[in-house]
Design goal:
Elements (H helix, E strand, L loop, with lengths): L5 E11 L7 H13 L4 E10 L4 H7 L8 E6 L5 H11 L4 E4 L5 E2 L3 H11 L5 E9 L5 E5 L14 E2 L1 H6 L9 E3 H6 L11 H11 L4 E12 L6 H7 L7 H14 L18
Parallel strand pairs: 1-2, 1-4, 2-3, 6-10
Antiparallel strand pairs: 4-9, 5-10, 6-7, 6-9, 8-10
């Protein structure tokens, strides 16, 4: 990997926050391949993995990292996605970072496009890709983040703002390129906000005048509801799942909590369960 092809001031964080099982290897291989095939590569890839049986051993034995600049970090603070990212951000030295989930892929030219936009839009703190969502079979489901380029959707074409978020919640953070300082200054992801922590983060960021722009190009492929993925767990896994009738609670909670940078305690009592 030549230095000329590096995006020298960005780290990709890959959270591995559950056990290695099912189709993990297939998806992980595709995610890493997408980094190999990027026309402009990030300076570093930080794999933040949980203190879980078999995970570190599997990653240590993985042989297809090639010339990617890989760093491993074992997070012992907590296994949640939010904690994995927050702890990972503490470790990085670059100005920017991006999140690559293990069942997702970057487009070949995403970082090339971001590099051009960083140079041109110097006031922007966060760049979102247009995301193509697919199911486990790879079949197209929908696009995400593209709504910001619809006329009259936001106050400023292409930019995410607080008013738009209060009306529409479906925006994707994975694949985004964000300043490390911005992420930390607004408080990072909140571990106490479950189903809607991404939504709450965007509300909080825009409330604090963070400039968020969607690059009007496909940049990221996201696999929806893969078995054992985070949102699959919230929906289906016993002892973790959040029933549909409780989803509104988390949307409402996000709209209350974004005024606060700290991760406050939340009293979640599922419907039908006595406090």
């Amino acid at each position: 990997m030549t230095k000329d092809n590096n995006l020298n001031d960005i780290t990709v964080i890959i959270p591995v926050h559950n056990v290695v099982e099912g189709d993990f290897e297939k998806y992980f291989e595709a995610a890493i391949k997408s980094l190999h095939e990027s026309t402009v590569k990030p300076e570093e890839i930080l794999i933040v993995h949980c203190d879980c049986p078999g995970v570190k051993e599997w990653l240590d034995a993985y042989e297809n990292f090639g010339d990617l600049n890989i760093t491993m970090y074992e997070n012992k603070v907590g296994p949640s996605f939010q904690v994995q990212i927050n702890e990972g951000v503490k470790q990085i030295k670059t100005k920017w970072f991006s999140i690559l989930e293990i069942d997702d892929e970057y487009s070949k030219i995403w970082f090339k496009n971001v590099k051009e936009y960083i140079d041109s839009y110097t006031d922007v703190d966060v760049f979102l890709p247009i995301v193509v969502d697919v199911n486990e079979k790879g079949e197209f489901l929908n696009f995400t983040n593209e709504a910001l380029w619809a006329m009259s959707f936001t106050d400023k074409l292409g930019y995410l703002d607080n008013n738009a978020l209060l009306q529409y919640q479906n925006f994707q953070s994975s694949g985004m390129v964000i300043k490390k300082d911005t992420f930390e200054e607004v408080g990072g992801f909140k571990d106490n906000v479950l189903l809607t922590f991404i939504y709450e983060f965007f509300l909080r960021a825009t409330y604090n005048d963070v400039q968020i722009l969607t690059v009007p190009k496909l940049g990221y492929k996201h696999t929806n509801m893969r078995m054992e993925s985070l949102f699959w767990t919230y929906r289906f896994k016993e002892n973790h799942k959040i029933e549909a009738e409780n989803a509104k609670f988390w949307v409402d909670t996000a709209k209350k909590e974004y005024f606060f940078k700290e991760d406050r305690a939340i009293n979640f009592v599922p419907q039908g369960v006595q406090a």
